[in-house]
Amino acid sequence: MKKVKKEKILILTGNYGNGHIQVAQALQDAMQIRFPHMEPVVIDVMEWVHPYVNHWSRLIYLQTIKTLPQVYGYLFQKTRKQNALSHIIKTVFSTGMGRMMKLISKIQPAIVVSTFPWAAGVISKLKSNGLINIPMVTIITDHTDHSSWIYPYTDQYIVGSRVVRDSLIQLGVEEARIADTGIPIRLQFSQSIEREKTAKKYGLDPYMPTVLVMGGGCGMIGDGSTTIQEIGQLRQPVQFIIVCGQNEKLRMELSEKLKGSKHCIYLTGYIHDVHELMAVSDIMITKPGGVTTFEAIAMELPMLLCKPIPGQEEDNAEFLVRSGVAIYAETSRDLTERLSQLLDDAKLLQDMRENTKQFHPKESAFASLEVIFGTMKMNNRVSGINICS
User: Fold this and answer.
1) How many percent of the chain have pLDDT more than 90?
2) Residue-level pLDDT at 224
3) pLDDT tens figures, 63-103
4) Helical H segments across the chain, by residue range
5) pTM of the full predicted structure?
6) What Cα–Cα distance (Å) separates residue 247 from each residue in 115, 228, 271?
7) What is the DSSP string of 86-97?
8) What phi, psi does 265 have (nearest 5°)?
9) What are phi and psi of 331, to 5 degrees?
10) How far apart are CA 229 and CA 313, in angstroms?
11) Distance between CA atoms of 43 and 182, rounded to whole angstroms?
């Protein structure tokens, strides 16, 4: 039997926070179910385009948001709209055209999808110079807008809400080029999970009030162990699931400091089955990353947000609180008071769970794919997809 050659979809992402990678994975998984005749190819664009500096630039980025968050927030706000500074930053991160051309030539994709802002910049520059003629879709992975995502040769934007859509229109993007599908999330967050059975799998009590603490892929939330110790002072017994991500130092530190806690503590590092931990939890304490919070919305899990990084996380927090799916704590002490309030108010928790249903996140990955393939078909009819000579 003759093997059918599949058309390839190039998905460009970046490992600067786990959200971009998770969205790429969500698209890949959904594509294999809905469009098995297509072949998704996921590439870390910074690793491919800048292999010699990617590791160090990622470390600098993570250290900056951890130790100098106000600097990061200042730059974020200064470059929210297109201006001279945003143009300089875009120019720096849009380098690497030669290596990207090699990748395009090797893969010959029918369409390029970007879940990382600087990836869209490189592709747009190639298109502007007439070197390629391939449709491009950009997926914004936060509940906010920013100029770093916006490029003139992007054919379609996929956003998480009407609020972001309206913000992009204010920044000059045509309404017809924006699809409000929700942020694509992995399919396991759309599954129905039995709480009692899953809790027992992790050695947890399915009937005890359970709080999931998520600090992002790098395990950074608030003041680290100080924040956890503060919420450990709650008067009512609680079952805590604390995910430290890749921060092994934090996990070991908490393991020692929480030995005598009156609460039930389940400590873990990076874990793939976060959807199961969400399913057995009543509240999630987290940094307001766009993808993690949208996953929680899919699981109908109320959120308590703590100390967002200035910039997109502050915008995410404002959006989530305004949408009624989260409340916000200013300090570690305030966090304890807010958590106690939530644990004592069953009606508030139920209202927050009901508010999650306005977003329809369970279909977001498949809805995004429909937009992507619609863009591909439309552009194929208009101009073809061949790489220009």
Assistant:
1) 56
2) 56
3) 787 788 888 888 889 999 888 988 888 887 777 788 999 99
4) 18-34, 45-49, 54-67, 69-78, 84-93, 97-107, 117-128, 162-170, 195-201, 225-231, 248-257, 274-279, 290-298, 312-322, 332-344, 346-355, 364-383
5) 0.88
6) 25, 14, 12
7) HHHHHHHHT--H
8) -120, 130
9) -135, 175
10) 23
11) 22
